[in-house]
Design a protein that fits this description.
The protein has eight helices and 17 strands. By secondary structure, it is of the alpha+beta class. The strands form four sheets. It has a five-stranded antiparallel sheet. The chain has a five-stranded antiparallel sheet with strand order 10-9-8-11-12. Strand 8 (about 260-270) and strand 9 (about 275-280) form a beta hairpin.
């Protein structure tokens, strides 16, 4: 009689599963043995590509009556860390809430040295790293701060920042010894900027992208980015960078959700520098690169002076040597002439003086409680101004007649610096009030 072949790990698991189905109250040793079998299975190559079965086994283990904290319970957490690396659909943050970080043992904060002398990072450190990476894919599973106290010191030590939605503002070729490497510049809505990120590190979203589709990085794309502050003396491919990109996935967030948008008026074009001057309703001045403004995710907008555009504001936290902030705009969409003024925001004003000889009239805002002022400042602030008009009647194209004293008009106005360097109200559009 041939000896019975040893049971596979899955046969042993099935045997234990049947036992637990038949026995209402298994003893502690049997329960822990079952949990250890699951830990062994989750770490095997047989489940390395099987997300569904791995999550099923992990769920079974979590329903066992295991001592908490305990060695086997911590081993399940270690297995879940590996699953988080293998399976992007695994919601590791949600699992941590169920596992409860208060069950970490003192020894879970210690590095482990294996037989060959190699040091394995402490379980708590591996959990912290896996959790931060998981937030990129499952931000809704963020754990409240009060429930993260057991990892707070480790997260601070590892110098992670919360995931950011960042926009690619520039892609540049860099000559290397082995050829050319393309690097991207990224910025978030609050001015945090990454000046050097290899394009190869910007990945498609693993939950939404086709595995066979080739990924291209373009100016104007949004990425969910996990950043880590460089430690003193830490080396990286960009020695001047203060931030390392730990992971970056093409974001599923749309402009207006993950990254703010604004409406602006294209005031002029600078041929020497090849960019447009754009002003928004808060009197902020931006420049849009004419060479890259048409790479937005809404297609290829055709931009002309006098257009109203939707754009993503790029406002770095750093300032120029003279203390100014160089604000840039990435144009996403061009409005029609009919919808543009409404999107920008018309202001109601009353004409108080008309001088036909000198071709100007003076106006005052109906609502003087909302003066015209640049965002972030309190002065200069204006509630009145002048409009000059030439033989072409600009800025009254299409109007039936020039306004008369006492007439209410709707105007597009913002502050613009004149040749004397002083900011004054600048009206680019006037139309008759419909009221």
């Amino acid at each position: 009689m041939e000896p019975e072949a040893p049971k596979t790990i899955f046969e042993q698991l099935e045997q234990m599963r049947q036992l637990f189905a038949e026995v209402a109250d298994a003893d502690q040793r049997t329960t822990e043995n079952y949990a250890w079998l699951i830990v062994k299975a989750l770490g095997s190559d047989l489940l390395a590509a099987d997300s569904v079965r791995s999550r099923q086994y992990l769920a079974e283990a979590m329903h066992l009556s295991l001592p908490r904290p305990s060695k086997v319970y911590s081993a399940l957490l270690g297995a879940a860390c590996k699953m988080a690396q293998r399976f992007p659909e695994f919601r590791f943050g949600a699992f941590l809430k169920m596992w409860d970080l208060r069950n970490l043992r003192p020894e879970d904060y210690l590095n482990v040295t294996v037989g060959d002398g190699k040091a394995i990072p402490a379980l708590a450190r591996r959990v912290a790293k896996a959790y931060m990476h998981a937030l990129l894919l499952h931000p809704a599973d963020e754990i409240p701060t009060e429930h993260l106290q057991q990892l707070r010191n480790i997260l601070d030590e590892m110098r992670y920042l919360r995931p950011h939605v960042m926009m690619v503002t520039k892609v540049t070729p860099v000559k290397m010894q082995r050829g050319t490497m393309y690097v991207a510049r990224l910025i978030d809505a609050y001015g945090l900027e990454v000046t050097f990120c290899p394009v190869a590190d910007l990945k498609p979203h693993p939950l939404h992208a086709s595995k066979d589709a080739r990924h291209y990085v373009n100016v104007g794309q949004l990425y969910d980015v996990l950043l880590r502050k460089k430690e003193p003396g830490e080396q990286s491919r960009n020695l001047e960078a203060k931030l390392n990109v730990e992971a970056a996935y093409l974001s599923s967030a749309a402009f207006g959700e993950g990254y703010p948008v604004a409406v602006g008026y294209v005031e002029s074009y600078d041929a020497a520098h090849q960019y447009y001057h754009v002003y928004d309703g808060q009197s902020r001045h931006f420049v849009a690169d004419a060479a890259s403004e048409n790479l937005g995710r809404y297609g290829r907008p055709t931009v002309n002076v006098g257009d109203y555009v939707q754009f993503a504001p790029i406002i770095p936290a750093s300032r120029t040597p003279d203390g100014k902030v160089f604000k840039r705009a990435h144009i996403l969409y061009t409005y029609t002439r009919a919808e543009g003024p409404q999107a920008f925001g018309l202001r109601a004003a009353r004409v108080v003086q008309v001088d036909m000889a000198r071709k100007f009239y003076r106006w005052e805002l109906i609502d003087s409680s909302r003066p015209i002022v640049e965002d972030g400042t309190t002065e200069p602030a204006f509630t009145s101004g002048f409009v000059s008009f030439g033989e072409d009647r600009a800025p009254h194209e299409g109007a039936a007649a020039l306004p008369a004293v006492g007439q209410t008009v709707q105007i597009i106005v913002y502050l613009k610096r004149g040749k004397d360097k002083q900011k004054r109200p600048h009206v680019v559009h006037v139309e008759e009030s419909k009221n």
